[in-house]
Task: structure prediction
Amino acid sequence: MNAVMNETTERPHLLVVATGMRLFREYILRSIAPQYRIHMFLHTEPTWEKDYIEAWTVLETTLDADVLVEAARKLHDEQPIDGVLCWDEARILQTAHVAQALGLPGGDVAMVNRCRDKHLTRTALAEHGVPQPESVLVDTVDEALVTADKLGYPVILKPRALAASLGVVKVNSAEELKDNWAFAHDTTVPEAPHYDVKVLVEEFADGYEISIDSAVYQGEVTPFCLARKEIGYPPYAEEVGHFVDAADPLLADEQLIRVLVEAHQAIAFTDGVTHTEIMMTADGPKLIEINARIGGDMIPYLGLKATGADPGLAAAAVACGRKPDVTPDRTLVGGVRFFYVDENDTVLESVEFDRTGLPETIDQLVPLMTAGQTTSPPPAGTLWGRIAYATVVAGSVDECRAGLDAAEKALHWSGAVKLPATDEKEPEEAGQ
Result:
């Protein structure tokens, strides 16, 4: 089904595959819509997206590359498409098939798969000598134990093809490895690709982790957003927050930028946007992973607020074969913090912020769940266990952190822990 929303203009015609959650991705469409004619492929009728798109096609699925290619070819015959864009990890490989079929930028399926499959990433980086933790693909817990002994504890267990640190855990001994094997091996999402050999055992890289979002145009890598991660719930690698400082001294770190560029060259990434995760160690930067999409967790949004460089417009530009403009126009700091319940299987009764007397640096206070939903903290809850987030924009990291602390104090939630069906006790109250 197609529905035209506005008159056709001379703006480039951009095909966007799916959107993701409104509360995390609307800002991208808001940026792109004034300068591009957006046609969207979805698997359900659009709702809020209608404010930003000119037309859409509802497909039986947006996870099947053949279905997407067939629909895209039909659309391209009717109205030539200038670029194809996707920021949903589960659909980036299928979107690459569409770009390839139409002869558009980003249409290198093997290139995107070298990002999607973390084992292929590691192999390409190793072949080109890019600094990274040593990594071994294993099939069984016994193989993992042998590998860990060779690498030396602690090691990292990591799923082969998930994002957002899902299934990632640090183990300090053979016993911890055996206890956490199922977590790394079995953690999945409904739309994740399946591999017979699923787990990487990796050398532990000690340091602090950053991410860099970059626009890549004809092989030229231009970073536009550098974030420092806040990690919680050890030994799991839950990303509980991020800070983007427009004046971060790492932006001028020649060694870091060289490693970033060399990593893109190693995987032959020529056109598109990337979200690269790097561990800053005493031995220098070490590549953790490269994702063939714009970052999640509101990181690019923080970059937009802190620097003025628009991530949505950068992504759309390179998708259409245009040189991106990511010139900053301000020097601020943006931060995000995510919030969780205290106990597993908490049935929420309310989630709300008291907005009284909050500092002016508060940007957004966003409940993610409502009464009646059941959630858990990490590791059971992972990123889908979050009940709310807050963003702050300020003049310094300290001021930004203070604003997030104030937002955390302003969050009030209540709920009851759901007990097993065989237990006749009353639900235990929980909240803050």
Remarks:
- The longest strand covers residues 220-232.
- The chain has eleven helices and 20 strands.
